[in-house]
Design goal:
Number of domains of chain A: 1
CATH topology of chain B: Four Helix Bundle (Hemerythrin (Met), subunit A)
CATH architecture of chain B: Up-down Bundle
Number of domains of chain B: 1
Largest sheet of chain A: none
Helix content of chain B: over 70%
Distance between the termini of chain B: 45 Å
Number of strands of chain B: 2
Oligomer: heterodimer
Radius of gyration of chain A: 16 Å
Number of strands of chain A: 0
Number of helices of chain A: 4
CATH class of chain B: Mainly Alpha
CATH superfamily of chain B: Cytochrome c oxidase, subunit III, four-helix bundle
Shape of chain A: flat
Structural class of chain B: mainly alpha
Strand content of chain B: 5-15%
Shape of chain B: elongated
């Protein structure tokens, strides 16, 4: 099995894991952390293996990593500091 | 490609490897990709703001979505992305007909997304999931439908590069158009890989 096939299997496995989490209907920190991790790992796999970004210019590579990282960070921030973010984004 | 560079420091010779970075596809597609990323950064920003202002809506919202539709879309998009990886791979070995077949497979798998979305949206319409379920569904519709528009553009691009590959328009020396379409297609994958857990899984 080549790199592309292994990557596909990994991505499918993580997707099914996500579906399992969705079916449990749980909420809370473990779910938020799991969602954060799956976004990071899956996006990382696509960026590194499918898009072959390790051989691309660093600025291109890091822009994609930053996008995935920002989304993951926002999952944590909205879960842990929802009230503070609500105050920050309220227009009086 | 690795280019060995020798540098002499004092009495010792250091050998290092500098790597010439290669832009996958072409510069033009990357302008488009970065524009899409900026656009979706703003859209996801709205999602997170809506989420902190309506926590109850977002906690209950995923229960009203068809998780299996989200999973199926993810699997079809990932498989379609895999086919584009293979298309670029075989084109590097100058096998343009094989590349065209991989692109065709990518198109067919990619077309499953709008079809599933069509049935999913009809299900929501039949079950009162349109116009009256609050901010979660509003956010869900604008983000997923905007993504669908980008996937449609991607599919049109794949049809173009698939036809060009079939007609021998690419070679092992020049396949930047094919790779550019693949890069855009993978970007739509990345976007969906964020949309799926944020709407279908996270509570």
């Amino acid at each position: 099995m080549g790199t592309a096939e292994k990557t596909w299997v990994g991505l499918v496995g993580l997707t099914l894991f996500g579906a399992l989490l969705a079916e449990t209907g749980h909420a809370g920190w473990p779910l938020a952390l799991a969602v954060m991790a799956t976004i990071l790992v899956k996006a990382g796999l696509v960026i590194d293996r499918y898009m072959e970004m390790p051989t691309a210019p660093a600025s291109f590579r890091w822009a994609l990593y930053a996008f995935a990282g920002l989304l993951s960070l926002m999952v944590l921030l909205t879960h842990g500091f929802g009230e503070a973010l609500k105050r920050l984004t309220t227009i009086y | 490609m690795a280019i060995p560079i020798e540098a002499t420091v004092g009495t010792s010779t250091l050998q290092s490897h500098a790597y010439t970075a290669r832009i996958p596809g072409n510069r033009g597609i990357w302008v488009g990709i970065f524009c899409v990323l900026v656009e979706f950064t703003l859209l996801f920003g709205v999602y997170f703001v809506a989420r902190v202002h309506n926590p109850e809506d977002f906690r209950l919202g995923p229960d009203g979505l068809v998780t299996r539709a989200g999973v199926a879309i993810t699997l079809f998009l990932l498989s379609s992305g895999y086919c584009m990886v293979k298309a670029v791979e075989v084109m590097r070995r100058n096998r343009h007909r094989a590349a065209a077949r991989w692109v065709l497979a990518a198109i067919l798998l990619g077309c499953c997304y709008p079809m599933i979305k069509y049935f999913e949206l009809n299900w929501y319409i039949d079950n009162g999931g349109v116009g009256q379920r609050g901010v979660f569904y509003g956010t869900y519709y604008y983000l997923t439908l905007t993504h669908l528009v980008h996937v449609t553009w991607g599919l049109l691009g794949l049809i173009w590069v698939g036809a060009r590959a079939a007609l021998g328009g690419y070679s092992a020396d020049d396949y930047s158009g094919l790779e550019a379409a693949a890069m855009y297609w993978h970007t739509t994958d990345i976007l969906w890989l964020a949309i799926f857990p944020l709407f279908y899984v996270l509570r």
